Amino acid sequence: MALFDDTRLQSRPATVVDRAYAALTNTIATLAAWNDARRTHNTLSQLSAHELEDIGLHRGDIDRIAHRTF
Predict the structure, then answer these.
(1) Among the four residues 6, 7, 11, 34, which has the most C-beta atoms within 10 Å?
(2) How far apart are alpha carbons 20 and 66 in whole angstroms?
(3) Which of 21, 19, 40, 17 is nearest to 29 (CA)?
(4) Could you tell me the maximum CA-CA distance found in the chain, to the nearest angstrom?
(5) What letter would DSSP give residue 7?
(6) CA 36, CA 17: separation in Å to the nearest integer?
(7) Rounded to two decimals, what is the model's pTM?
(8) How far is CA 43 from the centre of its chain?
(9) What angle do CA 39, 32, 67 make, to 5 degrees?
(10) pLDDT digit of tens for each residue in the chain (70 aa)?
């Protein structure tokens, strides 16, 4: 009796299509993260100093917060 099932297909090497797909999805994910950071920065920049203080931020924190994930 076998200890593990070896009847599955063996893994195949990455093809050019696989690499191109991975590069495309990585590019899309990077663009989405950049857009999220841009929108966060714009939204926080529109708040007054008092509104920023209400949420525990200062004007100097905006860049750090907006680009934390990007």
Answers:
(1) 34
(2) 30
(3) 21
(4) 71
(5) -
(6) 28
(7) 0.68
(8) 19
(9) 55
(10) 556 666 666 677 779 999 999 999 999 999 999 999 999 999 999 999 999 999 999 999 999 998 886 6
